[in-house]
């Protein structure tokens, strides 16, 4: 829920738990100019609100400037009425706690949050380049160099998350943002969970679900590795690999790993090799994140600085 807008694809049914009310005023101040005091009780009056950046089912995102330091942020406004309606208290609290604890160049910072009677406000890092989804829709596909740069950036960010026992579970173009140099940032942690044990909740977005999730089996960090294979395919071919007319057919294709490489698009053998080694039904046999980073297609194509724009 922290990215600039909601996605366009079908979401799997959401099971909710935890009805604890949320009234936290979290106080990490955006960097650049350090505050005189460690903690601050934020309010909307601390910000100058600019243009809208996006809108979704639960609220809107605005460009904003912190009045004292002039630091630019993205201010996500979530309506409490919607949180009540869909019983999202537990998920939102978990998302905020996880994202605010992460520090990685390819993960969007959540600096803090506050609330009033009707709204919850998330103070987010501003990603000047906007949503990766829009870039992909505009161009149709990415070059192998651009795709490799995004995939290795994601692998590095996910390796960091996994070290902290965080499984993301919903990596997709709609949840990815770009900075002013085209560096990728994971911008949404709505389905993430922090756990050392296997999970059983079916969650995420249809086209990106791993077979073990489709089959309602226990899953672990390897679901994120599967998703990188799906994303790599989509970056190069312009569509997810298991896309079908109906949800049932998509599920069937995922469970069978019905993977095809259309001859209409010329893609290198190395790229196909990486995708094929990630889209493996047995989760224990999927390529590890470190092996993704060391794969010849990555080392030969990715920009070491992670930037895709000059």
TrEMBL record:
Residues 29-39 have a biased composition (Basic residues). Keywords: ATP-binding, Kinase, Nucleotide-binding, Serine/threonine-protein kinase, Transferase. It catalyses: L-threonyl-[protein] + ATP = O-phospho-L-threonyl-[protein] + ADP + H(+); L-seryl-[protein] + ATP = O-phospho-L-seryl-[protein] + ADP + H(+). The keyword Acetylation does not apply. GO terms for molecular function: ATP binding; protein serine/threonine kinase activity. Residues 1-40 are annotated as: Disordered. InterPro entries: Aur-like, Kinase-like_dom_sf, Prot_kinase_dom, Protein_kinase_ATP_BS, Ser/Thr_kinase_AS. ATP binds at residues 57, 76, 80, 125-127, 174-175, 188. Residues 47-298 form the Protein kinase domain. Residues 1-28 have a biased composition (Polar residues). The active site is at residue 170. Its EC number is 2.7.11.1. There is a cross-link at residue 172 (Glycyl lysine isopeptide (Lys-Gly) (interchain with G-Cter in SUMO2)). Belongs to the protein kinase superfamily. Ser/Thr protein kinase family. Aurora subfamily. This is Aurora kinase. It comes from Cuscuta europaea. The lineage of its organism: Eukaryota, Viridiplantae, Streptophyta, Embryophyta, Tracheophyta.
